[in-house]
Amino acid sequence: MSADRLDLRTRNRTLLQRQLLLERSEITPLAAIGHLIGLQSQAPMPPYFGLWSRLANFAPADLAALLLNRQVSRLVMMRSTVHLMTSTDALDLRPLLQPMLDRSFGSSAFNRALVAGAVDRDELTAAGRAIVEEAPRTAAALGRELAGRWPEVDPAALAQAIRSWVPLVQLPPRGIWGSSGQTTYDTAEHWLADLPRPTTSEPLPARLAELTHRYLAAFGPASVADLQKWSGLTRLREITDGLPLRRYLDSGGQELLDVEGGQLVDGQTPAPVRLLAEFDNVLLSHAERSHVFDDGHRLRFMTQNGLVSSTVLVDGFVAGRWRAEKIAAGERPRIAVELFARVSAAQRHEVTAEAIRLGAFIAPEAERADVTIEVAG
Questions:
Q1: Which of 191, 211, 241 is the last residue of a domain?
Q2: pLDDT digit string, tens, across residues 257-293
Q3: Tell me, what's the pLDDT at 175?
Q4: How many Cβ atoms sit within 10 Å of the Cβ of residue 270?
Q5: Enclosing domain of residue 69
Q6: How many independent structural domains does the chain possess?
Q7: Edge to edge, what strands does the sheet with 255-258 contain?
Q8: Is residue 284 part of a domain?
Q9: What is Dmax (Cα atoms) for the chain?
């Protein structure tokens, strides 16, 4: 029996629904973060905008409370990038990703510095853990203290090794809306000591199978290459080949996987304008992304060194980028939008309306946001 083919718009609308972008959800921020398997958080503020674009009645204080209560944590996870995770997932999933983190660090100049200095991994890991668990440290302070024991090695390499080998949580007030501060670290195990430890009784293939199902529920249907792009892990076909998954083909004939019973969304379903955060995972979690944006637009919002702008979805696809200009207390928010795809007058009006709502989220006490829209040539 041949597999069904999925067209681009069906994949787009299905992804939007699973990403909570087709309509704002009433679920809690904690539930949303769990469903999405985290939000990329290279910078501390994007998760606030990521949740605002997905949830009804979300306020910055909701996420700030989760961070302060240690229900969510910011640490290095998928693709060796910082993610905001539920703290349960931070503890449970980080060990699954360690092979990817080891591979990434192993190919770096930092690792070559450790090899040249004959640094023992176990000794360095134990020393790094002890330092940050004694009191939170910045990366620079951690490197300096470790260099007291390994003076011939670059302190930055020592600190980066701990960041790669040990799950280090970035502590509040870093990541708290309206606050600022240096990035300081503690180990996830120490910072989250009051949480139950994750069970490790299941064999690794079973845990990777569960992760696969969760990925597909949030990002599917998707290929094995997509799953590996999102996670940074390799050889996952060995896992997916044995799973009872629904199988489709994309318009080019590539196999797509989905959870059994996963609902598809009609490609003609209307998709509202959405303003996505910087580094939004909906743009970063597939190897082939034509069902999210036109590759001809990619360099408009993604730089060669991996920076990803805040973007505008129109009819479900990236059509522009936006930025909120810094404002003084009491001033009207200023939202600047640049459109680089053709949009109708009605869609442009919808972009303006959504930007006004964003302004009210940023500064609820201020007057209506001042929105400017520029059409790029």
A1: 191
A2: 999 999 999 999 999 999 999 999 999 999 999 999 9
A3: 94
A4: 8
A5: 4-191
A6: 2
A7: 4-5, 246-249, 255-258
A8: no
A9: 65
